[in-house]
Amino acid sequence: MRVTVTDELQLIRYTLTDRDDLKASAFIFVPSRSDLRPTLTSTKPLEVVSGETETLPLSKYVTVAGGGDVIITEKERISANHADGADLLVDEKTLVYTSAQGYFGPDALTFEVTDGDGPDDPEGRKATLSIPINVLPPENQQPKFIQGQVNVAPGEPATSLDLAALTDDPDPEDKGKHDYALIGGEEKGVSARIDGGDKLVVEAASNAKKGTAVTLKLRISDGTTEPVEGTVAVMVTASTRSMPAANTDTIAEADAGKTITVPALANDYNPFPETPLKIVSAVTESGVGDVEFTEDQVTVTPAKSFVGTLVVRYRIQDATEDADREVNGQIVVTVQDVPDAPGVPTIASVQDRTVVVSFSAPSNNGAEITKYTVRSVGGSPYTKECQSTTCTLDGLTNNVEYTFQATATNRVGESGAVRPVGARPPRRAS
User: Fold this and answer.
1) Which of 189, 209, 236 is the last residue of a domain?
2) pTM score of the predicted model
3) What is the CATH number of the domain that holds 124?
4) Which run of H or of E encompasses 278?
5) pLDDT tens for residues 417-428?
6) DSSP 8-state assignment for residue 380
């Protein structure tokens, strides 16, 4: 369809009919001649090397409906943000552009034109136009690296950082072609490596201190210009793993005065199984005794005079060595000793070849008494074991003086004895 532009604005309806005689209509809006203002011949950016001068004839960059030429209306209406400050006008039909020294990037040359005889011609159609300009660097430029930042937790999987996303290069052809090298900053348990050419992989050792901050140094090269350096700030955060747990160790039987060794970590929970837990302190919490420790066990020596419950508090540390993650555990020791000495035996009866003695039961000092032993410690030797505090001593020799004393025995051992008592079975009648 060909439409002639007139002095009036036109709205033209047209109808389409298909083979099935189905119809559809639409409209064409045709502006009047006075509405057809000058326009750019193309919106493609003009490429200009930084510092070089480009002359722009309006006949090349501006078109007029119906043909004809345009002229600049006013010099004051010409501008460019990144020009070098020189005059942008050659004559009423020609512009000129030179970028500021060292600048490269986008710019635009803005101006007003008319297709009339001058700015005051009422018949002239005016338009304000902007020619987009892409100012190219005069030569290959160094890339720029934006400082990166990454957080890592001790002993956790490494964190990856995209270095390409932090690199800006004014030369489009260099993008995605940079080489990265790690040149320093690995310390305080933080390590890093370049993976896949443009990925920085950072991890913290399990014992890296929470709150540690290090700065990794990188060298970035585009293969042409002098390499530049960049940095990535690394912060070590608290571990996200569960806390260790110290479970109570119970020692049901321990002898007073004798050292026992407790593998206290054996029943404790370790969130870092690849690195053993560590005991960092151990003290007596209640009871009387001496405590010593190594990284994996506690030795307890109850006092010789102590019987009862001895409680030891120990503190463990996991692979992070973070004091805030240390926890306490307990070792509960039941301390036992040999019984006290039974009371002084008394003679209950003396019969033919037999003496019955009795004595008071002593304190068992934490362990059940399993037997009593009565011995003759003077005169004829004699020993008899009994299960109670009344003991029948039979098989004696009549008319022989015996001196008896009693002891008690439990799991730990045999008690001492107090002063003895004497007895003589009667002479057998003839």
Assistant:
1) 236
2) 0.60
3) 2.60.40.10
4) strand 278-286
5) 998 888 787 766
6) S
